[in-house]
Amino acid sequence: MSKTITYAEAIVELETIVSDIENASIGVDELSEKVKRAAELIKFCRSKLTSTEKEVNSILKNLGTELPEKE
Description:
There is one protein chain. The protein is mainly α. Helices cover 73% and strands 0% of the residues. Helix 1 runs antiparallel to helix 2. The longest helix has 36 residues, at 28-63.
Protein backbone atom coordinates (compact mmCIF):
# COMPACT_ATOMS: atom_id res chain seq x y z
CA MET A 1 0.00 0.00 0.00
CA SER A 2 1.50 3.27 -1.05
CA LYS A 3 0.05 5.60 1.60
CA THR A 4 -0.59 5.02 5.25
CA ILE A 5 -4.24 4.38 5.91
CA THR A 6 -6.21 3.93 9.08
CA TYR A 7 -8.01 0.77 10.11
CA ALA A 8 -11.34 2.53 9.57
CA GLU A 9 -10.35 3.58 6.04
CA ALA A 10 -9.25 0.02 5.24
CA ILE A 11 -12.57 -1.39 6.45
CA VAL A 12 -14.54 1.12 4.36
CA GLU A 13 -12.50 0.26 1.28
CA LEU A 14 -12.98 -3.47 1.91
CA GLU A 15 -16.73 -2.99 2.26
CA THR A 16 -16.76 -1.11 -1.05
CA ILE A 17 -14.82 -3.87 -2.80
CA VAL A 18 -17.13 -6.56 -1.42
CA SER A 19 -20.18 -4.57 -2.45
CA ASP A 20 -18.80 -4.06 -5.97
CA ILE A 21 -18.11 -7.78 -6.31
CA GLU A 22 -21.50 -8.82 -4.91
CA ASN A 23 -23.35 -6.39 -7.18
CA ALA A 24 -21.30 -7.43 -10.19
CA SER A 25 -20.49 -3.77 -10.79
CA ILE A 26 -16.92 -4.58 -11.80
CA GLY A 27 -15.75 -6.36 -14.88
CA VAL A 28 -13.74 -9.52 -15.11
CA ASP A 29 -10.67 -7.45 -15.97
CA GLU A 30 -10.93 -5.55 -12.68
CA LEU A 31 -11.80 -8.54 -10.51
CA SER A 32 -8.24 -9.77 -10.06
CA GLU A 33 -7.01 -6.32 -9.02
CA LYS A 34 -9.90 -5.88 -6.59
CA VAL A 35 -9.22 -9.27 -5.00
CA LYS A 36 -5.50 -8.44 -4.67
CA ARG A 37 -6.33 -5.11 -3.04
CA ALA A 38 -8.80 -6.80 -0.69
CA ALA A 39 -6.10 -9.29 0.34
CA GLU A 40 -3.70 -6.41 1.11
CA LEU A 41 -6.35 -4.66 3.18
CA ILE A 42 -7.22 -7.83 5.10
CA LYS A 43 -3.54 -8.40 5.88
CA PHE A 44 -3.23 -4.78 7.08
CA CYS A 45 -6.35 -5.07 9.27
CA ARG A 46 -5.20 -8.34 10.85
CA SER A 47 -1.81 -6.84 11.59
CA LYS A 48 -3.37 -3.73 13.09
CA LEU A 49 -5.71 -5.78 15.28
CA THR A 50 -2.87 -8.01 16.49
CA SER A 51 -0.58 -5.10 17.33
CA THR A 52 -3.41 -3.25 19.08
CA GLU A 53 -4.26 -6.34 21.13
CA LYS A 54 -0.62 -6.72 22.20
CA GLU A 55 -0.41 -3.04 23.11
CA VAL A 56 -3.62 -3.16 25.16
CA ASN A 57 -2.49 -6.33 26.95
CA SER A 58 0.85 -4.69 27.72
CA ILE A 59 -0.88 -1.64 29.16
CA LEU A 60 -3.22 -3.81 31.23
CA LYS A 61 -0.30 -5.94 32.43
CA ASN A 62 1.45 -2.80 33.63
CA LEU A 63 -1.73 -1.91 35.51
CA GLY A 64 -1.86 -5.40 37.01
CA THR A 65 -4.90 -6.49 35.02
CA GLU A 66 -4.72 -8.79 32.00
CA LEU A 67 -7.41 -9.80 29.54
CA PRO A 68 -8.10 -13.55 29.53
CA GLU A 69 -6.27 -15.49 26.83
CA LYS A 70 -8.25 -16.62 23.78
CA GLU A 71 -8.76 -20.32 23.40
